[in-house]
Amino acid sequence: MDLNLTGARVIVTAGANGIGRAIVEGFLAEGARVATCDIDEAGLASLPDAVFRTRVDVSDKAALGAFMDAAAAQLGGIDCLVNNAGIAGPTGRIEELDLAEVEQCLAICLTSQFLTTARAVPHLRASDNASIVNVSSLAGRLGFRLRSPYAAAKWGVIGLTKSMAIELGPDAIRVNALLPGLVAGERQRRVLEARAQAQGISFEEAERDAFSRTSIKQYVTPEQLADQVLYLASPRGATISGQALSVCGDTGMLG
Fold first, then answer.
1. Are 73 and 62 in contact (CB under 8 A)?
2. Domain-embedded: residue 227
3. Do residue 104 and residue 214 come from a single domain?
4. DSSP string of 8-33?
5. Does a structural domain hold residue 205?
6. What is the tally of structural domains in the chain?
């Protein structure tokens, strides 16, 4: 299927690995021009030469703003912003959590999306196919025991998405949120390992428990998530906005 994304100007945060890299590679395969940032210098270096890339910690407001400005200048504008950057945050009971770790989780998972969106909007207004895709999580709809900072940030992403869809709709800028479930990869493994340790159970028990609440008993792949992002960013998604779209194998509850 030709998604008519040839020449599209796309910024993806945290595009060196995992979901972000699959999104970057998906856009490149469709002929788009892509800029990305990440803290993983080796991952950035391994991206195709066509990708404009910069090492940025998205919790650094000044560095993030400079990247957005440089990427827009390099691309000659912005047609799509994909806010993918995020961390798992601390695992534990709320009374035991370290405030600095809580604030870092909120800064990376939520505040960075405010900052990138604010920088991107003037450029998006000039596009004839403008879209923003904010990566949230199923935790942003269902909550997540022992992961309250992460869940709070991801609920915030959904609120930001809906508010921006209403605010930017008159400018023909559509805004949607993507809600991944259990995603294949090292990050999901670390989350389950932390959960297992916190509950005093084995990794296998934690994994079985996670899938006990899911209709389709398999991990979501980064490529499946990238496919959803590409559709939303394409002209075929022209009337989809303000939505929180789950790609989760029909998960009813998180642990």
1. no
2. yes
3. no
4. -EEEEES-SSHHHHHHHHHHHHTT-E
5. yes
6. 2
Do 215 and 124 share a structural domain?
Answer: no
What pLDDT does 253 receive? 64
Strands (E), 18-76: 33-38, 52-55
**125: three-class secondary structure by DSSP:** coil
Regarding whether 169 and 60 lie in a shared domain, the answer is yes
**What is the tens place of the pLDDT at every residue in 93-104?**
999 999 999 999
pLDDT for 36 equals: 98
> Which residue in the list 150, 152, 207, 222 is annotated as catalytic?
150
Active site residue 150: yes
Q: What is the largest CA-CA distance in the chain?
A: 54
Residue labelled with tokens 């604030």: 103
- For residue 190, the enclosing domain spans 182-219
Q: What is the pTM for the complete model shown?
A: 0.91
d(CA 221, CA 78): 27
What is d(CA 112, CA 179) in angstroms, rounded to the nearest whole number? 17
